[in-house]
Amino acid sequence: LFQSVEMAPRDPILGLNEQFNADTNPQKVNLGVGVYYDDNGKLPLLECVQKAEKQMMEAPKARGYLPIDGIAAYDQAVRGLVFGADSEPVKSNRVATVQALGGTGGLKIGADFLHLVSPKSKVLISDPSWENHRALFSQAGFTVEAYPYYSAAKRGVDFDGMLTALNLAPEGTIVVLHACCHNPTGYDITPAQWDQVIAAVKSRKLVPFLDMAYQGFGQGIAEDGAVIGKFVASGQDFFVSTSFSKSFSLYGERVGALSVVCKDKDEAGRVLSQLKIMIRTNYSNPPTHGATVVTTVLTTPELRALWEKELAGMRVRIKQMREALVRKLKAAGVKEDMSFISQQIGMFSYSGLTKDQMVRLRSEFGVYGTDTGRMCVAALNSKNIDHVCASVAKVLSA
Ligand code: PMP
């Protein structure tokens, strides 16, 4: 049976991690990851999470099966966070929300459902995009193509290219859009450009699928979520996947969601019934712990305030690292203007370094980023930044 099974290519990021772990350079720095570390280089365990877990321990509960769509209070809290508890679509009960296994799970349930209702549609993702978008939608049965996004020459978004591609897309094309903190480039489009994207998507009758994996990591919870309000105001049906992996530092708990905004309550009920079949036939129902933690934090005013403070702390530290990077690269002798790094947003920076330069950074200096030049700014700290800047300066000078 397995004789003809071929070895699948290795996940490039995991391969990089293995190489990093085997590196004996005492100054090695891993900027290849997609994870936020604190200034001590540690994965944070948020205080709001610890407090919620303490509360949960004090009133231990048996772990029965959850409903297929997850904890009702969790789904409600997600809707509140993403759309606003008093927003029209939430009050009209026209948003179908299901608990999912991280943001990936939300995307996958959405992809499977879309393949059921629109199997011939194409999927458009940004060029470049998060590695898994292409694989996930291909695996769900779609042909996946890309719309222009990053322009190395512009050091930013090729917005004209993006808009042209959307305006040429056939009706029914599914368009995956990063709601904020674009991974991997760190370049987001402006609110005015969002208006143009929304108008194009609406007039071409495309299906928008917003991937919101970093709400709160860019400008703030409300600011990063503002694009959702714009889509609601445009009166279209759309999909939103949510991830709490980063914003709660709960990577391993797999806490996320999928929300589908429908025309009315009746439609949302029918959509929800189909989403439940996708879940039931894949893993039956989701796990309890992570979603209970997130629900407790989001619905307990003191814990919610603490979370917002801790999330702001992560956001501010990333910004400080961006600014320090620009300053210290200059001080280390880099002649090029690197100020674009502080205009980027979220966990990642497209540094503009070539593949050869990234390879040299690894082999000569133990500084690990991806071959595309992506570096995780959220893994920089006050102890490793000088080594990173000195290494980048050396690689850029020769
Ligand atoms: N979308 C994007 C753009 C991401 O960067 C990530 C995580 N790296 C995800 C989705 C998946 O998030 P999760 O880990 O919650 O599945």
UniProtKB/TrEMBL annotation:
Native source organism of the sequence: Ramlibacter humi
Family designation: Belongs to the class-I pyridoxal-phosphate-dependent aminotransferase family.
InterPro entries: Aminotransferase_I/II_large, Asp_trans, NHTrfase_class1_PyrdxlP-BS, PyrdxlP-dep_Trfase, PyrdxlP-dep_Trfase_major, PyrdxlP-dep_Trfase_small
Highest taxon of the lineage: Bacteria
A Gene Ontology term for the protein's cellular component: cytosol
Enzyme Commission number, as recorded: 2.6.1.-
CC cofactor: pyridoxal 5'-phosphate
Keywords, ordered alphabetically: Aminotransferase, Pyridoxal phosphate, Transferase
Ranges where the Aminotransferase class I/classII large domain occurs: 27-391
GO MF: identical protein binding; L-tyrosine-2-oxoglutarate transaminase activity; pyridoxal phosphate binding
Complex and partners: Homodimer.
Record-linked PANTHER family: AROMATIC-AMINO-ACID AMINOTRANSFERASE, ASPARTATE AMINOTRANSFERASE
Cross-referenced NCBIfam families: PRK09257.1 (NF006719)
Gene Ontology biological process: L-phenylalanine biosynthetic process from chorismate via phenylpyruvate
Pfam families: Aminotran_1_2
Lineage: Bacteria, Pseudomonadati, Pseudomonadota, Betaproteobacteria, Burkholderiales
Name of this protein: Aminotransferase
PROSITE patterns the UniProt entry points to: AA_TRANSFER_CLASS_1 (PS00105)
